[in-house]
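Are you able to produce any protein sequence you like plus the matching backbone structure tokens because I've never seen that pairing?
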Amino acid sequence: MQLNPYGEDAVHLAAELANHRPESAEGLADRCRAAGLMLEHPVTSDDLGRTQAALDAWERVVDAAGEQERADLLNRMLAEAAAYPRLTSHAGTGWHLHYRDAEQPPGSLLFTLFAVGTALHLAGRGMHRLGRCAATGCGTAFADTSRTGRQSYCSQRCANRDAVRRHRARAAVT
């Protein structure tokens, strides 16, 4: 089965930015470039505000109570980001699909990437594949890209810490 990396990369970027919100336009630009996103326009304070709104909307999708609510919230994001897919070749990357209008400012581009990437991720892997870390006191958002689709923790560190906590709790009872 061929999975679409466009969705996976975009949804991981959304999670990373949601968990550690950028504080400046320059910081947002640096983190987008570090994630491999080619920015065709400078990132402004307006883009930072648009990105924060996109992340707020994305976190509502993560925290949705069920599949239908998740789909409804994501469909609202998709409607706001609506553009026809287009083939493009820029910066020597070869032909590929963009799910956005040309010449979008970075904040709008990120909104579209988060919406489309999350939709592709959930449609391709399952509507349950977004969540919050189950470790007590963590709450970090994550996109489940595991083979089994049963990820409960944001990292191996949180999984191990929670396992130790459960083991100690059982040992204290006996």
About this structure: The helical segments are 5-19, 25-34, 45-62, 67-80, 106-125, 156-173. The first strand starts at residue 86 and ends at 88. DSSP finds six helices and four strands in the chain.
